[in-house]
Structures are given as C-alpha cells and as structure tokens.
C-alpha cells in the first residue's frame, strides 16, 4: 500500500458524487432526523391549510389568495373565461328565412385539411338555379378548428364566432354534427346576395318562418 | 359559512359515532357475558364474539376502508390538489369523496379475475388470504377500552362480570404481535413466487429480506417498554402509563416520554413491516410493480385493504404502548371523572342505585373514544409520513435496518436496563427519555437549513430551463 501512487488533490471517491454547484451536506442534513421532521412539518402544514380553509375559486389561479393553497380548477362548475381573441366552434350561418346560406359549392370540403366536412348537394324546390346542401356534416372529432373553411367560403355561410368549444360525448355517431346542430346563431344577409339581385326573385320575407336557436350565452 | 358547518358536522359527528359505538359495544359485551354465564359457557366466549364484531368488523375494517379514501384525499391536500370528489354527488356536495369507496369496491368485485398461465394455481389463490388473515388477526390483543365491572343477579346471587373491549388477552401479549406479524410475509413472498412473473418474484424477495432486516429492530424497540412496565400484556402496559412521571400529575408516564428512542425504532421498523413508503420497495410501483403485479380484482383488493388494516393495527399498538392507551394525564383523568362525568350521570339518574355503574360505564366509553382518537391521529401521522418521504434505495433500507436501527435498539435496551437497575421507579428513565426528546428537538431547531436558499442562488441554471 505504501507504493500506491498518491492521487491528485481533490474530492476523494469516498466523498460521493457532488454535482457541480452543489455544496456538501451540512451536519444537520447528514443527521437526517431533523430534515425528516422539517419535511413532515411542511406537508402537514399544507394538509391542514388545505383541509381546514375554504378554497379560493377564482379562475385566475396565479392571483388566488387566502390560506388554502389549492390551485385546481374544477372545470365544469368553475369555467375559465375564454381569452378575448377566442372564436370557438363553427356554425352554419342562416339566412333571414332560416335556411342555410350554404350553396353546396364544396369549397370548404375541398380545402379542409382534416377532411371532416361531408356535403351532399340538392336542388332548391321551385328554383332552377340555386343549389343547397341536403346534408352538411362535420365530424367534430376530426375537425382541427383551423378556420380554413371560413376563409374558403364564398357565401359567408360558415363562421367561427360561437365562442364555445366542442362538447364531449359518450359515442362517436353523436359527435358528427348535421345541419340541425350546425345551423344556429343570428342570421346574416348581404345586399350583394344573388338571391336579392336576381330578376323575378321574391324579396326576403318579413319575419322569420323558422325560429333560429340563439347562440349559447348571448 | 358552509365550511364551518361542515367542519362542525365532522367535529361533532365522528366523536358521536365513536361514543355510540363504544357504548353499544360495552352493553352488548355485558349482555353476552350474562347470557354465557346463564348457559355455563364461560364469560370470555360471548365477550370475544361481541368484541370480534365490534372491534374487528366495525372499527378496524371501517377505519381501514375509510383510510383508503383518506389516503387519496389527504395526499391530495398535501400536494395542493383536491382529490376525488366526483362519485355520488348529491346536492352539489361530494361528501369528502366517501362515495368513491363504494365505486372502488364495485369496480374491484366486478373486474375479471385473471389467473396467469404460468402461475402455481393453489398458491396463487392462497397468497392473498395468507397475507390478509395474519394482519387481520393482529388487532385481537389491542385493548380498545378499560375493563368495566357490571353487577348481575344470576341464580339469586350477585355476580360481578367484567366487560372489556379486547378480543383476547393472553399473557404473551406482544409476542403474539411479533409472531403473527411475521406470518404475513408468507403471503407476500408466495404471491411473488407463484405468479410466474420475474418482477413479482423480485417484489416477494425484497419483502422477505426487508422483513428479516426489520423484525429484529421491531422486537428490540419494544424491549425497553417491556422492561419498564415489566409485562408483555398490553392492558397492563396501559395501566403502568396512567401514573405521572416524577409524580407530576401533568406529565403522564407515557412510553413516548420514557422510551422515545424505543418509539422511533419500533415505529420505523413497524412502518417497514407495513410495506408502505418510504419502505415500499416490495411494491415499488415505478421500478417493479411489485409482488401483486399479476393480481386483479378483489384479490388485489385484499392486498390493498390488508395494507390499511396494518396501518390501523400499528396505530392501535403504538397508541397502547407509547401513548398511554385510554389515559390522558393523571390530572385530566381525575377531573374528567369527578368534575364532568359524575355530575352529569348524577343529574341524569337522580342519585338512584344505577349511579356507580353508570359512572364507570360512561367513563369507560369516554376513554374508549380517547383511545380511538389516538388511533385516528396515529393513522393520520402514518399517512403524513407515507406522503412526505421518498422511497429508499434498497441498500439504504438494509443499512437503516441492520446498521442503524439494530445497534440503536441494542443500545436502548442496555441504557434502559441500567436506568431501571439504578432507579426502579422510572424517574431516571424519564430523565433520560426527556433528554433524548430534548436532543431531537434541539437538532431540529438548531441545525436549520438556512443556507439552502443562499446556495441555491448560485446554482448553475440547467441548460433545459425555460422550455424545450
């Protein structure tokens, strides 16, 4: 052993690995017991504070105050307000008479990157020119809410202004939305709409023959 | 406001339930004793049967079941979460998540019971039972309440029958605990071995090695208390803790005050026997899933509920040996009887012949509630430990068992023996014990880790800090 070469000065292997920047343990930490008690005090303090005191349910988690430290948001009961720029799920825009503005041109279905829009076109009764969707379905499971359909639509027939998000369901068929569930919200009409300009076409009727369900929350 | 109402409901409802439970246990136990005396069956048979129902089924099982939910709710509160509150909501209240217990039990009962092809069928089916039964039997020697004398008129003679809330009171007392507790590891290692799974086998081997390492310390930690109370019976140990230390009436001679080191050793070793964090290496769900990896449904549920029954049992044994059982300090015991219970009973029964027996019964019921309160607090403390400390590495577990707890236990036995030889009245033992407590508290107070925040300031910032 006397011939063993002396190693360079520095930490011996028996000191254990010490990550750079870490100091060696103090005596109290090596004794282990005081640190155990301290840890118990911390988690016991959290436990008592959270069990005994009322939870601050403010949606702004960072500004919750009070002795209770819980930061959970109980979502369905305590919804967080959406940010002002949030647009939400799409809707089919109705005309003044309650029928969809959509003319079944397939532009939205073509541009859709998720290929979640399915349209079947049909003829409008008593109108030799107009097309209208017989089926207009959006698979909300596939929709990525990118808004391309809104951009592509030449008729302003699909909009993203509901401010809601897709409700979850228990089965797949009920999350494929048809015209009945997509057609909602305030009606939109433009003076440039062709059915106003076409010769011999009737002016839009007064009143609303089909009641339009209002937007939720508005 | 509703918060205060809820807290008040819990603060009044739980003691009320415990007192009602203790009262009916004593009454039925006395009734069973009278019935058995009538039929010459021996007093202890009826009392033991009533105690089995009231202590094992009503107290231990219900507390263990509630602990499964308490663990989830309290661990959530310790980590600033809310915990389960969705099952069985009624009027917008979640009832502390207690309906989840029903949901859990239903789920476990109706789950498919999968038996692996490579398992040894008989042992595989037997292992949960072998684990559950010894643990379930452990509480049998824990006395929940003091003995009460009831007078009965049987065959024209007045017979004194003693009722007590204890299933069995053998002279070997604590040796029963050691013997039966170590039986439980058979279930664990057989579960690991018969599952035909390497990880399960590892868990079983870890459990048995850990059991061997801590069984010695478990016994040595209690030797000090056995010596100072010179008995192995738990009721006699509780009686020896009813007096005051140094003759002071405010400081009871609880085991924790005369044997703090023994308490630490026993508690750590017993905690390792319950196989819960920080000693949950046989389970170790993040490295090996543990000895019950191949178990599903209610078989797994038996392993789980056995763990919580162990928690309750450990709390009961520690409350009896180290926390004075059903005694507060002598001053409080005396004044509880003379100033509160006696006037109350006299006012209720108008000083007729029932008074003496009623005072004893009321006192016993209140003391049972005190014992139950100590059990609840100790269960809470175990859950606090389980959710605070991280899991040991396996060599650390063996180091702690063999190289720290075992020498400490031997030293504690030696010091206790010397103290009792010098001064049989336990005063010297009390001085040593209080000095040990003072040393521990001093370590906590004076070895502050105040330098942590300073040294953390010049830690190098990790390269990954601030996002990906």
Short description:
The complex is a heterodimer of chains A (218) and B (468). Chain A has 218 residues and is an alpha+beta fold. Chain A is 20% helix and 10% strand.
Salient structural properties:
heterodimer; A: alpha+beta; 6 helices; B: 468 residues; mainly alpha; two-stranded antiparallel ribbon; 15 helices; 2 strands; globular
The stretches of 5 or more residues of chain A where confidence is low (pLDDT under 50) are none
Oligomer: heterodimer
Please describe the biggest sheet of chain B, giving its number of strands, its sense, and whether it closes into a barrel: 2 strands, antiparallel
Beginning-to-end CA distance, first to last residue of chain B: 45 Å
Structural class of chain A: alpha+beta
Percent of residues in beta strands of chain B: under 5%
Based on DSSP secondary structure assignment, what is the total number of beta strands of chain B? 2
Number of helices of chain A: 6
What Rg of chain B do the Cα atoms give?
A: 24 Å
Main β-sheet of chain A: number of strands, strand sense, barrel status? Answer: 3 strands, antiparallel
Percent helix of chain B, as a range, is 55-70%
Order of helices and strands of chain A: HHEHEEHEEHH
**Overall pLDDT level of chain B:** 86
Which outline of chain A best applies? elongated
The amount of beta strand of chain A, in percent, is: 5-15%
* Largest interface, chains and sizes: A-B, 33 and 26 residues
Helical run tally of chain B: 15
| Order of SSEs of chain B | HHHHEEHHHHHHHHHHH
Describe it for me?
- The complex is a heterodimer of chains A (218) and B (468).
- Chain A has 218 residues and is of the alpha+beta class.
- Helix content of chain A is 20%, strand content 10%.
- In chain A, the strands form two sheets. Chain A has a three-stranded antiparallel beta sheet. In chain A, strands 1-4 form a two-stranded antiparallel sheet.
- The mean pLDDT of chain A is 82.
- Chain B has 468 residues and is mainly alpha-helical.
- Chain B has helices at residues 2-38, 43-78, 99-110, 121-137, 174-194, 198-229, 234-240, 255-258, 260-273, 297-322, 330-349, 355-386, 394-422, 427-446, 451-457; strands at residues 148-154, 157-163.
- A two-stranded antiparallel sheet of chain B has the order 1-2.
- In chain B, a hairpin with a 2-residue loop joins strand 1 (148-154) and strand 2.
- In chain B, helix 4 (121-137) packs parallel to helix 10 (297-322) and helix 6 runs parallel beside helix 13.
- The longest helix of chain B has 37 residues, at 2-38.
- Chain B is globular and about 70 Å long.
- Chain B starts with a helix and ends in an 11-residue tail after the last helix.
- The chains are: A alpha+beta (218), B mainly alpha (468).
- The A-B interface holds A 20-23, 26-29, 31, 33-40, 42-44, 46-47, 50-55, 69-72, 74 and B 3, 7, 74, 77-82, 384-385, 387-389, 440, 443-444, 446-449, 451, 455, 458-460.
């Amino acid at each position: 052993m006397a011939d063993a070469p002396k190693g360079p000065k520095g930490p011996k292997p028996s000191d254990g690995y010490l990550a750079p920047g870490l100091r060696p343990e103090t005596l109290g930490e090596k004794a282990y017991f005081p640190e155990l008690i301290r840890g118990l005090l911390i988690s016991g303090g959290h436990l008592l504070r959270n069990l005994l005191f009322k939870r601050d349910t403010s949606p702004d988690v960072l500004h919750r105050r009070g002795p209770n430290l819980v930061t959970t948001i109980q979502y369905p009961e305590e919804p967080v307000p959406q940010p002002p720029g949030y647009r939400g799920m799409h809707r089919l825009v109705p005309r003044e008479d309650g029928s969809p503005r959509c003319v079944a041109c397939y532009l939205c279905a073509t541009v859709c990157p998720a290929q979640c829009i399915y349209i079947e076109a049909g003829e409008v009764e008593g109108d030799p020119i107009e097309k209208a969707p017989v089926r207009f379905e959006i698979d909300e499971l596939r929709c990525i809410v990118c808004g391309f359909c809104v951009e592509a639509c030449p008729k302003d027939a699909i909009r993203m202004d509901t401010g809601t998000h897709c409700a979850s369901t228990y089965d797949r068929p009920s999350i494929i939305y048809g015209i009945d569930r997509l057609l909602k919200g305030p009606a939109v009409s433009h003076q440039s709409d062709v059915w106003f300009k076409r010769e011999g076409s009737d002016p839009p009727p007064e009143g609303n023959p089909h009641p339009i369900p209002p937007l939720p929350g508005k | 406001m509703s918060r205060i109402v809820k807290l008040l409901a819990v603060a009044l409802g739980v003691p009320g339930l415990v007192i009602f439970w203790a009262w009916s246990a004593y009454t039925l136990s006395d009734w069973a004793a009278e019935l058995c005396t009538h039929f010459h069956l021996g007093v202890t048979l009826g009392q033991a049967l009533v105690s089995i129902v009231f202590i094992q089924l009503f107290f231990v099982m219900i507390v263990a079941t509630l602990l499964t939910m308490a663990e989830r709710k309290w661990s959530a509160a310790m980590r600033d979460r809310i915990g389960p509150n969705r099952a069985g909501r009624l009027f917008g209240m979640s009832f502390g998540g207690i309906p989840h217990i029903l949901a859990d039990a239903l789920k476990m009962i109706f789950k498919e019971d999968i038996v692996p092809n490579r398992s040894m069928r008989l042992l595989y089916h037997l292992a949960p039972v072998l684990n559950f039964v010894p643990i379930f039997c452990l509480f049998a020697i824990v006395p929940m309440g003091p003995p009460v004398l009831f007078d009965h008129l049987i065959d024209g003679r007045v017979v004194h029958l003693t009722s007590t809330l204890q299933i069995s009171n053998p002279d070997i007392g604590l040796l029963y605990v050691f013997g039966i507790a170590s039986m439980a590891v058979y279930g664990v290692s057989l579960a690991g071995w018969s599952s035909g799974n390497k990880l399960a086998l590892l868990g079983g081997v870890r459990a048995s090695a850990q059991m061997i390492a801590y069984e010695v310390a478990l016994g040595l930690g209690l030797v000090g208390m056995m010596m100072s109370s010179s008995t192995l019976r738990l009721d006699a140990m509780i009686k020896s803790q009813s007096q005051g230390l140094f003759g002071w009436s405010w400081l009871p001679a609880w085991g924790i005050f005369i044997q703090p080191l023994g308490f630490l050793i026993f508690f750590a070793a017993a905690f390792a026997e319950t196989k819960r964090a920080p000693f949950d290496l046989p389970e170790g769900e993040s490295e090996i899933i543990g000895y019950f990896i191949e178990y599903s449904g209610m078989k797994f549920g038996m392993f789980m509920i056995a763990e919580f029954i162990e928690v309750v049992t450990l709390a009961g044994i520690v409350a009896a040996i180290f926390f004075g059982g059903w005694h507060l300090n002598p001053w409080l015991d005396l004044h509880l009887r003379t100033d509160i219970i006696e006037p109350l009973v006299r006012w209720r029964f108008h000083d007729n012949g029932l008074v003496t027996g009623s005072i004893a019964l009321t006192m016993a019921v209140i003391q049972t509630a005190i014992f139950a309160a100590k059990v609840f607090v100790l269960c809470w403390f175990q859950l606090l430990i389980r959710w605070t400390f991280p899991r040991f590495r396996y060599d650390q577990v063996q180091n702690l068992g063999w190289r720290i707890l075992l020498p400490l236990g031997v030293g504690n036995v030696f010091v206790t023996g010397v103290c009792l030889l010098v001064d049989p009245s336990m005063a010297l033992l009390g001085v040593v014990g209080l000095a040990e407590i003072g040393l521990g508290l001093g370590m906590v107070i004076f070895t502050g880790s105040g330098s942590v925040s300073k040294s953390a300031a010049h830690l190098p910032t990790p390269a990954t800090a601030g996002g990906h």
